[in-house]
Structure formats: C-alpha cells, structure tokens
Design brief:
about 325 residues; Rossmann fold
Length: about 325
Amino acid sequence: MKRFHKKHILDMASLNAEEIDHILNTASALKEISERPIKKVPTLRGKSIIHFFHEPSTRTRSSFEVAAKRMSADTFSISASTSSMTKGETLLDTVTNLQAMNPDIIVMRHSASGAPHFVAKHINASVINAGDGMHAHPTQCLLDLLTVRDAFGKIDGLKLTIIGDVFHSRVARSNIIGFTKMGADVTITGPCTMIPKGIDSLGAHVTYSLEEAFSDADIIMALRIQKERQNNFFFPSEREYATIFGLSYDRLKSINKKALIMHPGPINRGVELSSDVADSTESLILKQVANGVAIRMALIYLLMGGTRDAHSN
C-alpha cells in the first residue's frame, strides 16, 4: 500500500481524486474489522487521539471514537461545555495546551468556519475537521462517496440531487466539491431562500423545479433543516416545507422510481423525509452510518503513516 502524504484532513478542496480514491479503498479494506466477533486490531496501539467538539454531535463523535478504539488508539474527549473556554480561554490557548499533552491527532468540530485550519497552523498534531461552521465536513462527504460507490459500483457519471437547507449546510458544500471531483453531476434544489448565491461556482447545477431535480437523479440527498443556525425565518413553517419540499414515498415514486435516498442526519422525520422514505429499502441512511466508522478508521490509519496490513491481529 502506498503512503498517504497528507498531514491534515481539513476539507474536500485540498484532496485530489487520487487521494480520495485511496481513502475510499482503504476504508473498504478496513470494513472487515467491524464484522469480526472481536472488533479490534492493535494497529494504532500507543497512538493518542483527542476528540475536541465545540458543537454537539452524536453520529460523528461516536463514529470517531468507535473507529479509534477499533484500531486500539487511546482516546480522550473534550467538549466546549467542559473545557476552559467557558472561563474565557481562547481557542489558541486551548489547543496549545492540548498540544502540550503530545497527541497524535486532534479531531475537531467547531462552530466557527475555518477554526480547524487555524488550529492546524499552530500545532504539531494532525487535525481532522469533523465539521466547521457552515464551511466543510470532509469526513461526511467521504462516507457518502463510499456509500454511493458501494451501492452503484462507481461514482463517475452518476447524478446526485441535494435538496433542502443548502445555505447552512457544510455537508452540501463538501459533497458538491467531492462528488464533482469524482465525476458525478450534482444538482441543488430547495426553497430559494435556502440556496446561497454563488453555490453553482462550486460545480453544482441549481434548479427550483423538483421535477427537473429528481426525474433523472440516481441519488437524492435530503438535508436537515438546521433550526439552530437560523436567526431569520427562511420558510413560513415546517408544515409548509414538508408539503412543498418534503419527500414522501408517493411523491418520490411519482417522479423517480429508481433513486436511492441519503441523509446526513439527524432526520427531522415528517419534515425532510417521511418515515416511509427514511425506513424504505431505497434508503442508504444506516449504510452511511456504518461507512462512517470505516472512513474514520481509514483516515486515522493513513494520517499515522499506515502502509502495512491494518488487519493484522
């Protein structure tokens, strides 16, 4: 296996197609570990990983923790509410104190766009961006790419439609960049108030017609309505959003009978997706969660210089 030369994973823009493919292939190989009766290998024994989450998280945080433990790394978790930042400590002071503990990797989620990039310039440890503001969420994009490749056997030439709160979505921005780099066509749709100006410059086609957006899509990704980021009203009510833009099984099948469904989670059931869509055989949502562990295993392994067999007992 060739060596991975990146020190940090900060966004999809800084990864080229060959590097993305290398990450996906590594993750595919590591999936087998999670299927064993004893789901653990000693590959990263002695390595230490700090999970520093300035924002709430369930799937991403637990996925990183499971991934690290399956590779036998030591993990330490810090949240903003339990850190000295509540006492007025700056972000730089916090991370330089963390660096003094000599971790190998800091997995970081922060409400400020660009915070992981700032941290990466000031510490020796590798930094993995677990989501920064409305900017980027590279590991979510990578697990989405792996999920699509598993389902279709390819990414190149597929058509992905993303619907919903694109304005506030770091997932949408990362996926537009990542899927486009891997040869997919990306279409954006949703309420006009939730489609930011200039989003097409990232490589996506913008349409406000659901028929146009859905009719020939191979994958439809619904985004969560991010109530916690909305200081203004971007739509009249959740009921109206669900009526006009929500995906029910009948609506989906009336427009497109073949598309598979994805969602980065958590789902507002009955708003972005009805339960009969979220729990349908066309849904890839739980496969996304499972692939999240494999992708994060692959990233910590590759950042630690992994080139030997990671499967060894």
